[in-house]
Specification:
The chain contains 9 helices and no strands. It has about 140 residues and is mainly alpha-helical. The chain has 3 domains: about 45 residues, Arc Repressor Mutant, subunit A (Orthogonal Bundle); about 40 residues, Arc Repressor Mutant, subunit A (Orthogonal Bundle), CATH 1.10.10; about 40 residues, no CATH class. The protein is elongated and about 55 Å long.
Length: about 140
Amino acid sequence: MSDALDQALRALRHRDRSTVEIDRYLESRGIGDDERQTALETLVRTDLVDDRRYAKRRAHSLADRGAGDALIRHKLEHAGLDPDVVDDALVSLRPERERAEEIVARRGTGPKTARYLAGKGFSYDVVESVIAPSPREALG
């Protein structure tokens, strides 16, 4: 087994990673372009690395931990995933509003919860709709 493939398998031991993450990992360890490319092709061919699977799992994991769509999109794009793959992963999630409503049910309404939701990447429209559902309660 090549050194590149061995190192890539070590990187995958504890969690899924995207193709770009594995490539960055190998590059940071001094593995040359050709060796990295060969290792990545092997990992993709054997289904050990699958960007669509990774994106969906990561998106669901982040959503389960209270992240909004903007934060999830940012994390997936940072992992080097194509926009189409990111979009597919986001579509597979429960609606952002439902996830925000669950957080509001635990934390209550108010400015602190609104800031919390915004900081977790929920859209302004979603935050406004779950914190101030009637027009006269609009956020300032």
